[in-house]
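re: that chain from earlier
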Amino acid sequence: MARFERLGVGINMEKLFLEIPGDIVEAAKLPSAELEHEFLKELALALYERGVLSFGKARALAQMTRWAFEELLGKRKILRHYTDSDLQEDMEYALSHQ
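^ sequence. v structure.
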């Protein structure tokens, strides 16, 4: 835990608190009302692209709907990690909504 505290990260098993230095927050060219959501969205995209988070967890971190997150992945040209279980889930959904 001490290593993370030096990095400005506090961890308990329920939440991760990431401290972003004020000069970086001020340098972000975003309205203050959008800062948190934009940082979460960028983190979610990066972690999904690296395969660290699943689509569902990344979408939840970004606080976006499934469709909005898929659209954002497309705009950023980030390939969707589409697994057999994703296909099965989509097939079941499609069949149940005919």
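The longest strand covers residues 9-11.
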